[in-house]
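Ticket #4471: structure export looks truncated?
Reporter: QA, pipeline team
Priority: medium

Steps to reproduce: submit the single chain below to the structure queue and open the exported record.
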Amino acid sequence: MPELKDDLPELIRSLHEPACYDHATGPVRLIETHISWVLLTGEFAYKIKKPLDLGFLDFSSLDKRLHACCDEVQLNRRLAPAIYLDVVPITGTPAAPHINGVGETFEYAVKMRQFPPDATLDRLDDQGGLTAQHVEAIAATLARFHLEGCKRAAADSPWGSPEKVWQPIAQNFAQIAPRLDDPADRQGLDALQRWSEAEHARLTPLMAARKREGFVRECHGDLHLGNLAWVDGQLLVFDCIEFNPELRWIDIQSEVAFCYMDLLQRGHADWAWRFLNGWLEQTGDFAGLALLRYYAVYRALVRAKVSAIRTVQTAGPERDAALAEVRALLSLATTLTRPLPVRLDITHGLSGSGKTTVTRKLMQAPGAIRLRSDVERKRLAGLDAQARSGSGVGENLYAADATRRTYDHLAHLAGHILDAGWPVIVDATFTARWQRDLLCDVARTHQVAFRILDFPVPLATLRERIVQRARSGGDASEADLAVLQHQLDTEEPLAADERSDIVRIDA
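Actual output as written to the record:
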């Protein structure tokens, strides 16, 4: 048996013996969290819940732990059906236990198919291996789950009401405060509590409306990089919240806020923006952005609470590290309360001029919410972004009235996103003067900076790119050479009175 910590319970120490299992094992390894022990045997992993009552969870009795184990398997099979196998009894005694044995059961474990512990995205990031591919996979997987894989809360259920939203937030403050000894830390926490109370009061009508409109769903609930893994070239999402339904039945923006916040904390602001934009582009939930900052602060405080709990469960360097993490998370939460510089940028360029490629970079740094006309035009028509509409030049989706509707929609969305305090980039051709004026009026009404990002590209290059894009596929744009010619025939060049707003882009 490997050398174990002195304070481990007898059961957990005993389960390091291969003879306790009904299958062959390698050397048994232990992963401990603040609420569970996970024993890694090689092919399988066994998760045992600690007999705790922390307020936000209660595993204090065997029956409660069994119920939580059953819920954990059922709920996690939504996203990881091949990983979550069963709930198994532990029989015998803590000194001589048997996993899935006969006789009286004194404990339960969740049996899972084991994957490499270093495959989790937090560890991958620590090793410098996290990439934009991983971030895009998170956004796509989460969007599909929110759109198709999780139930909507019933109108008469308590979940997602403003009162229910506030309860875990208030609990965070109540549980962090007694564990902070430094007066400066307490002052920072008090300021965050005042901000959260004011924001909650301001956003209560929106929360209630979101509940009525079906945005409160049975989510994962704990979506940070430690609960995501990259296994066999695919994203694995595991370890959702099973122990408290009010932490799982939440607004989908609260779920998004956790991963967004986690990427920020890890120093990946560019990928936080990329993740957020990827999810928004697929779900279209721009209206929920008014809640995102509030929920991101809450999620930072959730992690601060977990670290604060660890400060009383550990000692020495481990405790010091946990306290440093509490302070880092309080600092991030404070930063998240501060307004961003808000602006409105639009693009100007023919199809193939590189607008989408450049705005993808700009939406990551300095950061913005990007709206794409190619995506929103299809969303208005009830089509997926990658769908081919079969519309000819100036017909159906691209008829004059459909184009007017698309640009009106872009202006409407941009205004709401600016109201929510987020910078905006609108990616469209903007070849007609009325289209540019429409968005300029939005910027003027909201009193924010306005820029026209101009993409002058030689015609031969445009033609080459359009042909190449059609061959490769995988883009929302349906523009072909006939569309390009139509744009050339009908465009209204930038006028002298627009010059002060123009920024030339070398694409």
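Status: closed, not a bug. The export was complete when the record was re-opened. Leaving a note from the reviewer for reference: The mean pLDDT is 94.
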